[in-house]
User: Fold this.
Amino acid sequence: MDIANFEFNALHLPSPIEEIYDECWNSKGIQVFVKRDDLIHPIISGNKWRKLKNYLQTFSFNTHSGLLSFGGAYSNHLYALAFTGHSLGIPTVGIIRGDELNIESNPFLTKMNEWGMKLQFISRTDYRMKPIPAEFESYQVIAEGGFGRLAMQGMEDLVNELPEHDLIYTAIGTGATAIGVANYSNKPVVGVLTLNNKTEIEEHKLPANLAIEDAYVFGKYAKQNHELDQFCADFYVKHQIPIEPIYTGRMFYALIEHIKNGHIAPNTKLVAIHTGGVK
Assistant:
């Protein structure tokens, strides 16, 4: 299980950085760079590898039988975990929200099963308790979405790969990426919420340089929104960078609104982190 060899041969690291242009910000002397972590790998896309790397590096068969985590039927985190476990020879278990589901409910679950992940489907009520089935008590547990100290530490490499900048933007799901990036950066970080979990995020010890933007959730998490869908489509036409409405779409929408509203000072050089999730 050679993580360094896997990184070198299978992953595109460091991920590229692209500057994008628009009269909206160029007229103000603002530069916008996109950290293309979505190009790290087609499956282990974006922050998925950043969050998983340290769990994989510290995993030992001397202490655990495999890795176990939680997620929904379309969890990018579990999808990435199943693939990396398969690639590195580490058994994996996914506790899936929804006891009405099975391995044939969608292509994601089917593929995860093919990669050897043992899928356990439980009711939404039980899922809130995040139970560990008795037969998997010897597995190392990774929190839902990969959240945790090791995930945050995985952002150190990301920050070290960034160009000179004045400001960082990133989406917030569980918060691991934004908190981790802010921990390792001495620049202001704006985390754009993608679901209504500001209270939960603020329960964690937040770095002083992290500001949470909660005005662009667009209702409920992952709920379809025509304006947001159109924004993502227009963004791709203009910049040839695919984004999706759940995470990166909300983040870029907020970033551009901040520029339009004068919340970002002229002549600022900012980096937007593309956290992946585009399939």
In short: DSSP finds twelve helices and ten strands in the chain. The mean pLDDT is 95. Residues 228 and 271 are 21 Å apart (CA to CA). The longest helix spans residues 226-239.
